[in-house]
């Protein structure tokens, strides 16, 4: 050890700890258990339900409190799913937790990463992860900074060069002084920029929030007026008034729709987990299914960390080529992707002893050695080994004729030593073609997205030519439109490139984020894949973010989806699951909106019409369970691979209006008839319940088309359940037997409902199809 590298003394360490110059960072963490509970319990939806529950408890109407089960189920599903995701992410931590070797008081000792202080001398060797930003003060090494910069090539570091925290030593050994620790380090600063609450970009969530806000805005004034009116009609009977008011207000809030959404998304999450995809944010399943631009990182997404020799163009004895490659691979310590590909190709070939080996350097661009057979072998870039292009015209003509997107290196030999540099009498042996190994099925995955109309853009810190070659190999449309981002100087140039180019090389972390922002600004819905710290800002900004499990902690924690098996081929399955979820939720949500629409209209009507409200909360427990709850869950879990079209809110309201309109006409008609006849109030209420169930059942029939065995079974159970509830549990559900006049009235209204509903629904379907074509 150099005499200047005595490290810090114990007193100096204590002083720096007291000054806060220690390597403790506020890393990006998953949401705490406490916050998960707060976020799911403290909602407007829950608050309204608790108030209504308290009102029923106050007047002792306990059987009408069954609706609280929906609130509890909805909240529980949300909490359980988020905690499950949190635990899964926390278990995925793969960053090294090994002890770090530092020099203190003149000797080496091991400490944890969090105990490093500023100016500590850290001992780093092959395989070490750099724990803080450091300056090399002795030795040399080669560093893999791909998780930070996206650059896959190894970077040579000498005395005075900076080492960035989070990168790895791939070759060599050095002593480095920690100059930036904790929050001051490069990786920590990137992480800090990603520490903000990301707004969920979900059309379903926006639709539900819009509906709930409208309902809440209507609920309070209508509720107060309704209560006052019913209190007078019921001659001051508080219990009857509260029960009627709660029934009206409950119907305004599509609480079952929220439970349905949570449940269906939870089922989707379980299905994706079986496919090795971890979902950290429920609504991202929908977002991914809607994206029209997918930004891809090269290494880790399109390619593995491996390279393969695809061809060797021989220019001499083939056996000597195998020996030369095996020998260079044997004695080279520079185990980068290129050397590993050579080593794999030459496996089984005999190697010969080496007198002296000359490692690769960024200046010479070659490596080689003097071997026991009296020859020297060298391998590297053609223009650096064969400097006289005319003399070695055959080599360069061969290279020019290669059309494949490969990395090209040449192999040569000489009778002289390499000690004084490359000899003049060097002889070409072979041209070796090496290519990045694409991930299995990546071409199929790329083709899938192309067929779905999703634009693909490859964004990487590697050289633009390297990235472009990979893009071409995978079949990405527009791969010829490539740009080196070091040439982009203005925001205007960046925004233009974001829209017009498909391949981006030498991209900085800030530029990745700016490209995503530019695409979103142009009206695109953007998904981003990544695995490194350099991807964090862009991942956080994207509408949907996807990380590889083998990537950095920060990338995983800010992403909504994590591919546990690091397989990009899982993506089509996620998109398909999203489509099934959205299309089926759109179909099923109409069942819940029906009640919201007719309840609001009827509540306003009964404020001005001097009649008791015909419904109690217990009525909706029967009708809702069998004509809304059960059918909606069955329909929501059916296969559905259709492309998503149209506006979610428009589609569900359009499907709901025919049933809601028929229900309103029936109830108002019954109120008018009862007002001017001797029909008993209990019979009037019972017919209203029957007609409401019929309208809902008609909607189920139309939504279930085309029929299959499961849907027919569901329709049967629903119909039988309603009949059994009305016949055998009439008293519990506050229903009565109908008189002959009541049965005749019910029959006439049913015939009118069946005809009018189908006419209205057919017209609604035409409007929906027109809307879908508009939003293609």
From TrEMBL:
Topology with respect to the bilayer: Multi-pass membrane protein
Keyword annotations from UniProtKB, A to Z: Hydrolase, Membrane, Translocase, Transmembrane, Transmembrane helix
Start and end residues of each P-type ATPase A domain: 95-192
Transmembrane spans: 41-59, 65-83, 208-228, 248-272, 589-611, 617-637, 649-672, 684-705, 712-737, 743-764
Presence of keyword Transmembrane helix: yes
Short name of one Pfam family: E1-E2_ATPase
Subcellular location: Membrane
Single GO term (MF): hydrolase activity
The protein, known as: HAD family hydrolase
Biological source species: Ruminococcus bromii
């Amino acid at each position: 050890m150099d005499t200047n590298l005595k490290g810090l003394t114990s007193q100096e360490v204590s002083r720096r700890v007291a000054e806060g110059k220690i390597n403790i960072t506020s890393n990006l963490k998953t949401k705490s258990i406490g916050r998960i509970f707060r976020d799911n319990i403290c909602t407007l939806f829950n608050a309204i339900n608790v108030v209504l529950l308290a009102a029923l408890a106050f007047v002792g109407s306990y059987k009408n409190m069954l609706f609280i089960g929906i609130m509890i189920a909805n909240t529980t599903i949300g909490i359980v799913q988020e905690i499950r995701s949190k635990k899964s992410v926390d278990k995925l931590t793969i960053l090294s937790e090994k002890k770090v070797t530092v020099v203190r008081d003149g000797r080496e000792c091991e400490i944890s990463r969090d105990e490093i202080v500023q100016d500590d001398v850290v001992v780093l060797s092959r395989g070490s992860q750099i724990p803080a930003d450091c300056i090399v003060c002795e030795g040399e090494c080669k560093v893999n900074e791909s998780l930070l910069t996206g650059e896959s090539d190894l970077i040579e570091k000498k005395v005075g060069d900076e080492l960035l925290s989070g990168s790895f030593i791939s070759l060599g050994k050095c002593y480095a002084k920690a100059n930036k620790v904790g929050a001051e380090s490069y990786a920590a600063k990137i992480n800090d920029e990603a520490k903000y609450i990301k707004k969920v970009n979900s059309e379903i969530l926006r639709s539900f929030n819009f509906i709930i806000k409208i309902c809440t805005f209507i609920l309070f004034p209508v509720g107060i007026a309704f209560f006052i009116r019913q209190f007078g009609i019921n001659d001051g009977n508080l219990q009857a008034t509260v029960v009627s008011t709660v029934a009206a207000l409950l119907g305004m809030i599509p609480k079952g729709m929220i439970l349905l959404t949570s449940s269906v998304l939870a089922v989707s999450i379980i299905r994706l987990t079986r496919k090795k995809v971890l979902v950290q944010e429920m609504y991202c399943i929908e977002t991914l299914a809607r994206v029209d631009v997918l930004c891809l990182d090269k290494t880790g997404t399109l390619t593995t960390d491996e390279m393969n020799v695809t061809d060797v163009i021989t220019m001499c004895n083939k056996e000597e080529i195998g020996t030369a490659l095996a020998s260079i691979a044997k004695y080279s310590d520079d185990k980068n992707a290129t050397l590993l590909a050579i080593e794999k190709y030459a496996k089984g070939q005999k190697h010969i002893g080496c007198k002296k080996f000359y490692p690769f350097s960024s200046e010479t661009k070659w490596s080689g050695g003097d071997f026991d057979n009296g020859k020297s072998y060298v391998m590297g870039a053609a223009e650096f080994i064969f400097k006289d292009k005319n003399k070695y015209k055959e080599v360069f003509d061969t290279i020019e004729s290669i059309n494949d997107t490969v990395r090209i290196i040449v192999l040569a030999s000489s009778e002289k030593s390499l000690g004084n540099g490359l000899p003049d009498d060097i002889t070409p042996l072979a041209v070796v073609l090496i290519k990045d190994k694409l991930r299995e099925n990546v071409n199929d995955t790329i083709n899938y997205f192309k067929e779905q109309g999703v634009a693909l853009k490859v964004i990487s810190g590697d050289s633009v030519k390297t990235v472009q070659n990979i893009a071409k190999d995978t079949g990405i449309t527009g791969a010829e439109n490539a740009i080196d981002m070091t040439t982009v100087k203005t925001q205007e140039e960046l925004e233009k490139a974001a829209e017009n180019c498909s391949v981006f090389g030498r991209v900085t972390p800030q530029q990745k984020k700016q490209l995503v922002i530019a695409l979103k600004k142009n009206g695109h819905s953007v998904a981003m894949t990544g695995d490194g710290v350099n991807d964090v800002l862009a991942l956080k900004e994207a509408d949907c973010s996807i990380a590889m499990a083998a990537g950095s902690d920060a990338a995983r924690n800010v992403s909504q989806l994590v591919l546990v098996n690091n397989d990009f081929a899982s993506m089509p399955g996620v998109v398909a699951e999203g489509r099934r979820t959205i299309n089926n939720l759109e179909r099923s949500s109409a069942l819940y909106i029906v009640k919201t629409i007719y309840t609001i209209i009827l509540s306003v009507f009964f404020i001005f019409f001097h009649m008791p409200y015909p419904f109690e909360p217990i009525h909706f427990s029967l009708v809702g369970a069998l004509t809304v709850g059960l059918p909606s869950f069955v329909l929501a879990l059916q296969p559905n691979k259709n492309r998503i079209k149209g506006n979610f809110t428009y589609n569900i309201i359009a499907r709901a209006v025919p049933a809601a309109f028929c229900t309103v006409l029936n109830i108002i008609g019954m109120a008018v008839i009862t007002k001017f006849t001797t029909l008993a109030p209990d019979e009037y209420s019972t017919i209203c319940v029957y007609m409401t169930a019929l309208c809902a059942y008609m909607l189920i029939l139309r939504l279930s088309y085309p029929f299959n065995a499961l849907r027919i079974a569901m329709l049967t159970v629903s119909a039988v359940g309603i009949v059994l509830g009305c016949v055998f549990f009439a008293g519990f559900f506050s229903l009565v037997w109908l008189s002959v006049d009541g049965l005749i009235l019910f029959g006439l209204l049913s015939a009118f409902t069946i005809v009018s509903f189908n006419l209205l629904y057919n017209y609604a379907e035409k409007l929906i199809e027109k809307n879908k074509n508009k939003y293609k």
